[in-house]
């Protein structure tokens, strides 16, 4: 008898994808390795891949958007078979997943690998999220349906179109005759869409928003000596002479990464500092270092070691947008946020109140500068408006308007002048960014409380605080978090530094475009 031929079994889609050198498997999920895109960039990369696949199969589609400007691909339900064939073929070697979404856009439980033969878990699913999981440089798996490309099948019944979920413009049902197609330029190509879908809406925040960080390199020995010499002749409040006021472990690098990753719409970033630029910061058109003499109204009061003095002068930074966000290097963005987390479409700023009350008593030299300034702010606002503020603000990035601060500088001219001239925090200083601006703007109709955003404050010098980091890194479920370096530590500085640095490297592994690579030579970024 002739020998039997040895047939090789067909390779399954999963094993074929798994064999790619740039694909890894994490917890049973196939993912692209070495992810370098921020979430918004990953979504666009997946969108363009899917659009190319539909184009290759001559499948007609529309591009629409949701209220957050996230793209949605739309195909007629009658094209489902053609869509399935096109995407299954295109994704034969790609780890694309598909999950059906509920009407509230939350993902259902079942997830399918498109390469296995279908574009949806069920043939009746009309609302999907398609995405390629990715693993970043820290080995963290990013496989979140909410970050995927929304894909919808629209149904035409007679003269009516039925849409499975709300978008930025249409109703769930509308008359076919009301659908007026037009083209739009997005993501480097031309798309078919619906008239006015990508026109600025009244709900859109369309004005530019910059960001300002104040920062000090507390490791600079020359700066430490100068500060110590000047402080010798001053009496400061509780905790204001602590090393925690200026100690740093490269938090600024990761704070800026959080902005690049989760606030990609920020126009420019200003770093207000009199320290040397960090060695990792390269010259970049979106990042500028500004020295105190560039924006202090009266440079003769310099130098200063008072963050409240610096904050009182930020509105004088040349080129800064009217609407801007102020932050410190220990404040981080925890997940993607839209502009309306900070400002209304009309420009009203939105601030986060803390649960902590300011408390009783007046300002006193024995109190910390933070506690004193809150009491000074309270007295000024009570005198002007007859209203009493009761709460501190959260330690988070705060939205501000230059014109409002300029107005306040005229209204409270003696207090602004005295604070700017204080080389260290003094008992009569104001705090413009926390909380004088926000309550003044509230009482004059230009700010409101933000009651939707979530915030976590972590004192990283305590055992409890360090214990929160693991949970935060796993859940990633807050909008803002602050990793504060407390003035009364329980944990040794080297232990704290090691654990906080490891956490930040894990949470924000993607270098920002203004960072030098490890082997890159050259001088740090310059001011100006």
Give me the CATH fold name of the largest domain: Spore Coat Polysaccharide Biosynthesis Protein SpsA, Chain A
Total count of strands: 26
Number of helices: 13
Shape: globular
| Overall pLDDT | 92
The main β sheet shows up as: 8 strands, mixed
- What are the segments in which pLDDT stays under 50 over at least 5 consecutive residues? 1-9
Tally of domains: 2
Assembly type: single chain
The Cα radius of gyration reads 27 Å
CATH architecture descriptor text of the largest domain: Alpha-Beta Complex
Q: What's the helical proportion of residues?
A: 25-40%
Query: What is the first-to-last residue Cα distance?
Result: 87 Å
Strand content: 15-25%
Quickly name the level 1 CATH class of the largest domain.
Alpha Beta
Architecture overview:
The chain has helices spanning 13-18, 39-56, 80-90, 221-231, 251-262, 292-295, 307-311, 369-385, 402-411, 413-420, 432-443, 463-475, 493-507, and strands at residues 23-26, 29-35, 62-65, 71-76, 97-101, 107-113, 127-131, 134-136, 141-142, 149-157, 160-162, 173-175, 181-186, 189-194, 209-214, 269-272, 287-290, 323-328, 331-333, 349-351, 353-357, 391-393, 398-401, 447-449, 455-459, 480-484. Strands 3, 4, 5, 6, 7, 10, 11 and 12 form an eight-stranded mixed sheet that branches. Strand 25 (455-459), helix 12 and strand 26 (480-484) form a beta-alpha-beta unit. The longest helix has 18 residues, at 39-56. It is of the alpha/beta class.
């Amino acid at each position: 008898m002739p020998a039997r031929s040895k047939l090789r079994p067909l390779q399954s889609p999963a094993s074929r994808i798994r064999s790619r050198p740039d694909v890894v498997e994490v917890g049973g999920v196939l993912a692209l390795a070495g992810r370098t895109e921020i979430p918004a960039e990953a979504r666009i990369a997946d969108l363009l891949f899917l659009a190319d696949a539909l184009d290759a199969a001559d499948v007609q589609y529309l591009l629409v958007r949701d209220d957050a400007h996230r793209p949605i691909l739309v195909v007629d339900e009658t094209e489902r078979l053609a869509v399935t064939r096109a995407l299954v073929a295109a994704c034969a070697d790609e780890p694309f997943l598909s999950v059906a979404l509920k009407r509230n856009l939350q993902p259902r439980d079942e997830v399918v690998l498109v390469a296995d033969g279908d574009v949806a878990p069920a043939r009746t699913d009309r609302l999907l999220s398609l995405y390629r999981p990715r693993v970043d440089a820290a080995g963290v798996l990013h496989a979140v349906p909410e970050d995927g490309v929304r894909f919808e099948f629209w149904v035409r019944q007679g003269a009516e179109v039925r849409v499975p979920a709300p978008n930025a413009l249409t109703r769930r049902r509308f008359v076919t005759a009301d659908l007026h197609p037009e083209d739009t330029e997005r993501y480097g190509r031309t798309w078919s869409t619906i008239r006015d879908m990508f026109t600025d809406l009244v709900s859109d925040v369309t004005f530019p928003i910059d960001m300002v960080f104040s920062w000090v390199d507390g490791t600079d020995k020359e700066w430490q000596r100068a500060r110590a010499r000047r402080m010798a002749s001053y009496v400061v409040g509780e905790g204001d002479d602590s090393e925690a006021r200026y100690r740093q472990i490269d938090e600024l690098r990761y704070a800026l990464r959080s902005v690049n990753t989760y606030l990609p719409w920020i126009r420019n970033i200003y770093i207000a500092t009199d320290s040397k630029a960090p060695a990792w910061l390269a010259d970049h058109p979106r990042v500028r270092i500004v020295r105190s003499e560039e924006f202090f109204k009266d440079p003769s009061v310099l130098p200063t070691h008072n963050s409240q003095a610096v904050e009182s002068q930020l509105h004088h930074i040349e080129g800064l947008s009217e609407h801007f966000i102020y932050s410190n290097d220990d404040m981080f963005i925890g997940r993607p946020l839209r502009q309306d987390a900070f400002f209304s479409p009309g420009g009203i700023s939105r601030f986060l109140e803390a649960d902590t009350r300011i408390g009783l008593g007046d300002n006193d030299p024995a109190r910390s500068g933070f506690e004193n300034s809150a009491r000074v702010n309270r007295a000024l606002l009570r005198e002007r408006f007859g209203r009493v503020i009761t709460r501190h603000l959260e330690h988070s990035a705060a939205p501000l308007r230059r014109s409002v601060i300029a107005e306040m500088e005229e209204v409270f001219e003696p207090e602004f002048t005295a604070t700017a001239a204080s080389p260290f925090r003094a008992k009569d200083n104001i705090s413009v960014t926390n909380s004088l601006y926000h309550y003044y703007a509230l009482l004059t109709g230009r700010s409101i409380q933000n009651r939707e955003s979530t915030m976590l404050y972590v004192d990283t010098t305590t055992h409890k605080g360090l214990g929160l980091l693991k949970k935060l890194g796993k859940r990633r479920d807050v909008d803002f978090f602050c990793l504060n370096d407390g003035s009364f530590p329980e944990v040794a500085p080297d232990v704290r530094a090691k654990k906080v640095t490891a956490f930040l490297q894990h949470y924000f592994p993607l270098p920002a475009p203004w960072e030098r690579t490890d082997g890159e030579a050259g001088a740090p970024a310059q001011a100006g």
